[in-house]
Amino acid sequence: MNDRYIIDTPESIEFGYDVAGIGVRFVAALIDTALFSIILFIAFRLYIGDLSMIMFVNPIAIQIFFLFSIFTVVIYYIAFERFWNGQTPGKRLLGIRVVQDAGKPLTFNGSLIRNLLRLIDFVPAYYAIGVLSMLIDKRTRRLGDLAASTFVVRDRQRVTLEMLLQSTRDDKVASALKDSGATLPNITALRPVDMDLVQNFLLRRGTLAPDRRLRIATQLAYALFGRLGYSVPGDPEQFLQQANDQYVLLRAQALQQATSAPVAID
């Protein structure tokens, strides 16, 4: 039960969120319930003692622990959602987060309201109302979400400048290396340090995983394109092999010419 929530900004720019469905939210809630249940169990053993002795415990102590449990549950959700940008451990594992209306980051007041009303969702008489609300609402909001103007979305992968540059770089290489075969003019522009890296890769490529092997070959090919002043279509690894072969041949020819040249006698 996923939907797409589209937001139109005042600048007439549209962006959207994938609304998290009931299923993924339920699993996230189970994970969080398990975590704070462990916390409460440890606290119970430290405060009350053995479960078999609960009949002999002062009722006031039981009431105090009950209030402590409610406080712990609310603080658990508020603290994590506040400092983890709308996520609890369960939400983070499932890749979802809470946001305000219009996709803004979750505020403290929003987290406070939605999690105080979470206590109503735990009451059996009102639990069905909360589920019904999620089924009816197009953004699968429970009562707390409606009151706090929040909803839960699928988390989007963070994009950094380096990721964008790398993506552009790889796209350029992929488009440039489509149909291989050309010889390499301007091969003398390649530096020994560049070819040392290429030769090291060619020697070790058999030990690399396929995805890592392709990624390194692509990066090296793009670096050599900058030296050559042009790009060569084809497979990046095939290009590196071709560049290395021609570079070695060029060096061998230069060495041969140097050794066969007449020596001037002063």
UniProtKB/TrEMBL annotation:
All copies of the RDD domain together span 19-148
InterPro entries annotated for this entry?
RDD
Keyword annotations for this protein, in alphabetical order, are:
Membrane, Transmembrane, Transmembrane helix
Q: Which Pfam families match?
A: RDD
Cellular component GO terms, alphabetical: membrane
- Membrane topology field: Multi-pass membrane protein
Primary residence: membrane
- Which residue ranges does UniProt annotate as crossing the membrane? 26-48, 60-79, 116-136
- Reading the lineage from the top rank, the first entry is Bacteria
Which compartment or compartments is the protein found in?
Membrane
Protein's recorded name: RDD domain-containing protein
Lineage start? Bacteria, Bacillati, Chloroflexota, Chloroflexia, Herpetosiphonales
